[in-house]
Amino acid sequence: MRDIILRNVSRSFDGKPVLRHVSLLFPAGEICCVRGRSGIGKTTLLRIIAGLLSPDEGTVEGVPDKIAFVFQEDRLCEDFSALSNIRMVTKNRTKEEILQHLEELELRGEASLAVREFSGGMRRRVALARAICADADLLLLDEPFKGLDPELRIRVIDYVKRHTEGKTVICVTHEETEAVLLGGRMIELEDSK
Amino acid sequence: MMKKPAFYRLGAVFLALCIWQAAAMAVGLDMLLASPLQVIERLISVWKEKDFVSTVLFSALRIGFGFLLAFMLGTLLAVLAGRFRIVENLLWPYVVTFRSVPVASFIILALIWLSSKQLTVFISFLIAFPVLYSNVLQGIRTADPQLLEMTSLFRVPWRRRFLYVMLPSIRPYLLSASSVAVGMCWKAGVAAEIIGVVKGSIGEKLYEAKIYLQSADLFAWTVMIILFSVLMEKAFLFLLKRAFAGVEKL
Question: Stretch B166-175: mean pLDDT, rounded?
């Protein structure tokens, strides 16, 4: 596994610059939290690293093949159960293993319910379990703890920490407490203007 | 308690029957316009005829087979067209032709090429295929782009992508297309049987009704066609919904 290096990355939308000459290093196997005000380009940064967006300028190096992403919008298959949503992205996980993950996220009882019946917090946890169970080398988390109450958030952060040891994790968050609890490096994106 | 719209509809049906009865009495000739009572009498007697079951089975099996063929081939080719643009381009002339050429032209052509027993299957297939193909393709095209992006990022194999993302998107299109196509198959299938005077079919019964000016027979068989068309539609949609529910439980 290699460090992920962004060199001089710029990206604009409709002529409006969102990222301008950003250079960053995310060490392999470590957790990095990216913070910054709304609209500063945190999600754009994750999407560029994931290869979902091309930078207008600059390069991204060291991105592994196997990536997992917790999107801001959950992106779950509504008609399918939590179990099926996770099973969809896994190759070698048994049903019992997936149920164990759902148990840790306090969702075992709801494992076979269609996710369209889930609350925002439950959906978030399914999206997190899906990313963890994908066995990726790089996890990109875009505000992964949004919608969770403070006590549950602590337990879910602990779950993420336990299951991402040795993996590169880049987590975008607004909350300083989340970044502190998750540990690792803290990167503050500042206004590029 | 009966809901108001249903009450009004029943009232409208009753009024329509009264108008029909009055028109039949005004015409005064059963062979030109049978009254609703005569049609009801014929409906009661028609299913007791010894060739009733064989006639209905003859047409229903062929129409059903034509529809199923169109359902399977239309869905399969739409899935392929959704994945490979070249398949869509190659199929385009056929789909446009099937959709726009009058069904009577195809019936005449089929009478030259095929035996009259194969005619119903062929015409039912021809009518249902473009409806099912276009709708399934539309369903694939309207699959959630965010989910497609997610599955692409997670490197989800194509089969699973189809099952989890595309199939739920296809579902409403396939259900409504199947509902429309079954009715269209019955209309076109029976029309083909009339033009081809297919022996032992419902179309032949309608043709005989026309030849012998038996309007009560004509109406009675028309009611039967509507009834069997609705039955086939309901049964097929029930099975299709069950199949989708089974997939969602995977």
Answer: 96
Closest-CA residue of B relative to A113 is B249
Quick one: pLDDT band at residue B2, thresholds 50, 70, 90? low
Output the pLDDT for position B3.
62
Place of tokens 């299951």: A163
- Mean pLDDT, all residues of chain A: 93
At residue A133, the 3 state secondary structure works out as: helix
Which residue pairs from B210-213 have beta carbons closer than 8 angstroms and sit at least 24 positions apart in sequence?
B213/B31, B213/B32
Nearest CA to B222 out of B210, B233, B234 is that of B210
C-alpha B123/C-alpha A84 separation (Å) is 41
Q: Select the residue of B153, B168, B249 nearest A52 (Cβ to Cβ).
A: B153
Neighbours of B103 (CB within 10 A): 18
> In 3D, which of A135, A136, A183, A178 has the Cα closest to residue A156?
A178
Residues 42 through 71 of chain A touching chain B, CB cutoff 8 Å? 50-52, 65-69, 71
Q: Is A95 on the interface with B (CB under 8 A)?
A: no
CA of B152: which chain A residue's CA is closest? A52
d(CA A171, CA A187): 10
Mean pLDDT of chain B: 92
Residue A192: pLDDT over 70:
no
- Residues on chain B touching A67 (C-beta within 8 angstroms): 153-154
| Residues contacting B28, CB < 8 A, separation 6+ | none
Q: What is the mean pLDDT of residues A135-155?
A: 94
Q: Using CA atoms, how far apart are residues A128 and A182, in angstroms rounded to an integer?
A: 14
Q: For B153-179, what is the HEC assignment?
A: HCCCCHHHHHHHHHHHHHHHHHHHHHH
Choose the closest CB to A77 out of B147, B149, B249.
B147
Per CATH, the number for B34-248 is: 1.10.3720.10
What residues contact B179, with CB distance under 8 A and at least 6 apart? B233, B237
Mean pLDDT computed over A66-70: 96
Chain B hits for A71, CB-CB cut-off 8 Å, are 146, 150
Q: Which of B217, B166, B210, B213 is closest to B191 using CA atoms?
A: B210
Residues of B in contact with A73 (CB under 8 A): 146
Q: Which of B209, B185, B189 has its CA nearest to residue B198?
A: B189
Place of tokens 């195809």: B106
